[in-house]
Amino acid sequence: MTAEETASALVAEARGLATDAVAALTAADTVAELTAARPDLLGKGAPLTGLRRRVGSLAPEDRPAAGRALSEALAEVAARYEARLDELRAAERRRQLEAERLDLTELPERPPVGRLHVISQTQRRLEDVFCAMGYTVAEGPEIETEWHNFGALNFPPGHPARDMYDTLYVDHGPPGSTLLRTHTSPVQVRVMQRQSPPLYVVAPGRCYRQDTADATHMPVFHQIEGLVVDEGITLGDLAGAIETFTTAYFGPGFTSRLRPSYFPFTEPSAEFDVQRPDGTWLELGGSGMVHPSVLEVCGLDPERWSGFAFGFGIDRLAMLRYSIDDLRDLWTNDSRFLEQF
Ligand code: FA5
Fold first, then answer.
1. What is the pLDDT of residues 162-205, one digit of tens each?
2. Probe ligand 1: pick from 153, 216, 223, max atoms within 8 Å of CB?
3. Residues 144 and 179: beta-carbon distance below 8 Å
4. Distance between CA atoms of residues 169 and 101, nearest Å
5. For 269-317, what is each residue's pLDDT tens digit?
6. Which is it for the CA torsion 18, 20, 26, 31, positive or negative?
7. Does the C-beta of 312 come closer than 6 Å to ligand 1?
8. How far is 279 from 206, CA to CA, in rounded Å?
9. How far is the C-alpha of 25 from the C-alpha of 27, rounded, in Å?
10. Could you tell me which residues are beta bridge partners of residue 223?
11. Which residue of 126, 168, 312, 320 sits with most ligand 1 atoms within 8 Å of its CB, as the best mutation to test the pocket?
């Protein structure tokens, strides 16, 4: 420090050092770099702080202004330091968040989930509708005795009505004694044998006939059987049950009718048809009043109990409901076809 030092030179030097300090702190790219530089910019040993010591050697009248200018320069560097520190901390926080970010908008693609086959869906819906009407669900075996499938149902051996069913026999026991059930009606017999009336049951399941596959026939298909046995059951109850089912399952635009028919295990017997809203009729299945001799074979007194039964094709019903043209499509396992339902 020389005697000639002037306040203006000191102030100019302070400005220059402040500018250098601001440049240095602006150049720091990380919080660590910036805090490491702090002693050199604002600490006791920093060049700008060191200028304070030289204020005392100025002419007394110059000291206050020079002191103020120096304080302002230091305050400016300190403010810029804090601002830069905030900036770098925010940037580091952003970088950290970015690195830890989980992108929830791009979830991994869901693996394909299977679905129930349209026939299973149809069967479950039918069960729901009948359960809502007060029926319970019963089951029987698919491999049946000839007696349950035919004998108990009033088809004695050699009865011509047996020819309506192209039966697949199973090589078990005496020839002709065991078969793949041709309809769900043997479940009627099993239910009447093991439960006492009143009976309100449906029995859905697979059936087998040696039918050639075409648009409306398959050698393996599904039926749902209905059986009601109680006191005072009449044909009117059968018609009412079919009509209630038709509107519950198909909707209010549909109606049903019974047409005289023949089945050995019902008397009288009727086919029942469903009318679509466009006026066309579709045959759904068979029905009738349970034949007294069937009640008797199953141990029920026909003088006390009467009942009705019906049975129809679930596959045909699904065709109608989902506008399927060909039953064979249901067996191709083409997922593009099956995914529609
Ligand atoms: C019977 O099987 C009687 N057991 C129905 C019955 C039950 C009558 C209770 C009286 C009392 P049918 O052979 O008509 O009847 O068959 C009934 C329905 O099963 C048919 O209307 C049809 O919808 C369906 N069905 C029959 N054979 C096939 C087949 N090969 N492929 C697809 N559906 C079939």
1. 777 899 999 999 988 999 999 999 999 999 999 999 999 999 99
2. 223
3. yes
4. 67
5. 999 998 888 888 888 899 999 999 999 999 999 999 999 999 999 999 9
6. negative
7. yes
8. 31
9. 5
10. 205, 313
11. 312
- The CA distances from residue 226 to 25, 84, 147, 184, 191, in Å, are 90, 84, 20, 9, 11
Contact present, 187 and 194 (Cβ < 8 Å): no
* pTM for the structure as a whole: 0.70
CB 146 within 8 A of CB 176: yes
The atom of ligand 1 lying closest to the CA of 183 is 2
Strand pairing class (220-230; 306-313): antiparallel
Structure token digits, residue 118: 């349209």
**Token pair listed for 43:** 């600490």
Confirm if 320 and 305 have CB atoms less than 8 A apart: no
Strand 255-263 to 306-313 pairing: unpaired
Tokens of 90: 């925010």
Give 145 Cα–ligand 1 centroid separation in angstroms: 19
Are 311 and 183 within 8 A, CB to CB? yes
Distance (Å, whole) CA 59 – CA 272:
124
Q: Can you give the pLDDT at residue 4?
A: 57
Distance between CA atoms of 194 and 299, rounded to whole angstroms? 10
d(CA 230, CA 180): 30
d(CA 40, CA 35): 10
- Residues 59-73 pLDDT 10s: 888 888 889 999 999
Contacts 24+ apart (CB under 8 A), 112-116: 115/338, 115/339, 115/341
**CA 291 to chain centroid:** 45
Integer angstrom CA distances of residue 199 from 132, 220, 234, 241, 307: 15, 28, 14, 14, 9
> What is the length of the chain?
341
What are the structure tokens assigned to 122, written together? 């149809």
**pLDDT mean over 225-239:** 97
Sequence-ordered list of residues with C-beta below 8 angstroms from that of 266, at least 6 positions apart, any chain: 286, 287, 288, 289, 290, 291, 308, 309
